[in-house]
Prior knowledge:
- This protein has one helix at residues 154-162, and strands at 2-7, 13-16, 28-39, 43-48, 53-57, 63-68, 80-82, 90-97, 102-107, 110-115, 128-130, 138-148, 172-176, 181-182, 185-186, 196-199, 203-207.
- It is mostly beta strands and 213 residues long.
- The protein has a single domain (2-207), classed as Jelly Rolls.
Amino acid sequence: MSNVVFFDGVDDYVSIADNVVLRLTSPFTIIIRAKLIKATGQQYLLGATANKFGILYGWTANSIQFQSVGYAGGDPNGALMVLSPNSSWHHIVYSADNTVPSWKGFVDGNRIVNLNTNFTLPGGAATVYIANASAFLGSMVVAEVQIYNRQLSDEEISYNNAHPNNPKRRGLVLNLTQDSIYGPTWLDLSGNANNGTYVGGAVPQVANRLSGR
């Protein structure tokens, strides 16, 4: 048994204080493993404030996209993946490298989005949120979140999907896993002390450990 974080859609989110290593520009990879139960309207699964990046659900029906505001050089908002709310866990990844250019989206280790898009995130100071900053309207369960300061290869993304709680380490600047969901904060195992603060009813709950350790 282990823990997950449940968001009931009332006043729940997790906040991670600003840190220079989380001020994403390019390249980057962001990952969330979540069980999306339901959502009302457009809801962030994972995002930041000032540098305006995030994984957004519900831009169109049952779609997940990477949303960015204030970037330069193109519009990645058309990168959509269909993911209907259900009771299954999904490993959701968006990854970009401005120097290639390369823009990739994955669900459960499978590449769904592939764009030759060139853009740069602003990289300003920002609080990172799991769920909307004002609460996730709906319900979901989250088991892990990772952010990298590089674009992972397809093989690395497939590896991370198959190995919960033991992701690739190079370039890892945020690493929240089932192993670190305990105590008053969601402890960051990357070594950067980007610990998550539970807000509202977003609290750890006992759950079965995800397979693939």
